[in-house]
Design goal:
alpha+beta
Length: 339
């Protein structure tokens, strides 16, 4: 019985003309993955470390996550417009940002990732440290000293240790921690205390959120009698909201603390309406919609305030305009916002 003709196979070995494509494409994919990985590890990747540099005796801490804020469309849109069109500098001169990048390698629009402010009451005064975490170069303080020297009115000087810049008129100190976090402090002693990595107890009360804060009775006991601690956070998304949680203490039951907080919210709203304060970033609308509830079993009083996305966008637009004014050398007298 004769065998039927078998058609030639279509999926056999590639012809010699196309055989070189396989290794070349493989090498290209490997190279692309290597470049992408290097870009992520060297430029994009960032481990949050700024909270390690909170003052040991801090009574109030606030943290802002830049990546989360910039990832939110109502905030990103005005800032993206600023990045695309920053506006001209006065007389075509180089800007502070230009000089900062040329001198230190720090790019303000790309490198900062988080900021943490800690405040420690000292008698009637206070010490503070602003820790800015990001992908910064190492040992930038001497370069910052060169940049500060261009502004004689600052009266800046590099300390004997070679790693602390002190602004003479104010006493503000600038330095950098070993993990590259930039530190700006009320004085050189506060800077030294914050430069070493620590584990301040108050940091553990910070919620995980784009913006969060925590405080203990060193602040809240004087500002709102009855609360021995507090924390709060701002959530973004489709329905942005601010939550503030007070921990009742000193023998004051939560219902009493709730009444005190309600009175404070009402007074703030009345003052804003009386003096016609501008609604800078939606805070007045948030005040108007705030609710306060108490949880007797847990000893908590919680304020919840829906925050309008349009207000956050308005605040970001005002910030962008402020940056343009500073860059152009225009005087900044007051903040003008659209109604």
């Amino acid at each position: 019985m004769p065998l039927a003709a078998v058609p030639p196979a279509t999926g056999g070995r590639p012809t010699r003309r196309r055989a070189w494509l396989v290794p070349v494409l493989g090498l290209a994919l490997v190279a692309l993955a290597a470049v992408g990985g290097a870009f992520y590890w060297l430029v994009v990747r960032y481990e949050p470390v700024a909270t390690r540099h909170v003052l040991p005796g801090a009574a109030f801490v606030v943290r802002a996550d830049f990546s989360a804020l910039v990832g939110y469309a109502p905030i990103r849109r005005p800032l993206a417009a600023l990045w695309l069109d920053p506006g001209p500098a006065e007389g075509g001169a180089s800007t502070f940002g230009d000089r900062l990048e040329d001198t230190t390698g720090i790019h303000l629009g790309r490198d900062p990732r988080e900021v943490v402010l800690s405040i420690e009451p000292v008698g009637v005064a206070a010490r503070w440290v602003l820790a800015i975490g990001g992908n910064f170069p190492r040992a930038v303080v001497p370069d910052l000293a060169k940049l500060a020297a261009e502004e004689p009115t600052l009266g800046s000087a590099l300390a004997a240790d070679g790693i602390t810049l002190v602004l003479g008129r104010s006493g503000i100190a600038i330095g950098q921690a070993d993990d590259r976090t930039l530190l700006i402090a009320s004085d050189a002693t506060a800077l030294s205390d914050a430069r070493a990595e620590g584990d301040a107890a108050i940091v553990r009360a910070l919620p995980v959120a784009p913006v969060s804060f925590a405080g203990n009775d060193g602040v809240w006991g004087g500002a709102l009698a009855g609360a021995d601690a507090a924390n709060g956070w701002l959530e973004l998304g489709d329905a942005p909201a601010l939550t503030v949680r007070l921990h009742a203490g000193h023998g004051v039951p939560p219902p009493v603390l709730r009444g005190t907080l309600l009175a404070a919210v009402g007074a703030a709203a009345a003052v804003a309406a009386l003096v016609h304060l501008p609604d800078l970033a939606g805070e007045q609308q948030a005040l108007a919609g705030a609710t306060v509830v108490s949880d007797d079993a847990r000893g908590l009083v919680t304020l919840s305030a829906p925050w309008p996305a349009s207000g956050l966008e308005r605040g970001a637009a005002a910030l962008a305009e402020l940056v343009r004014s500073v860059r152009a050398g225009r005087p900044v007298r007051r903040l003008e916002l659209p109604r």
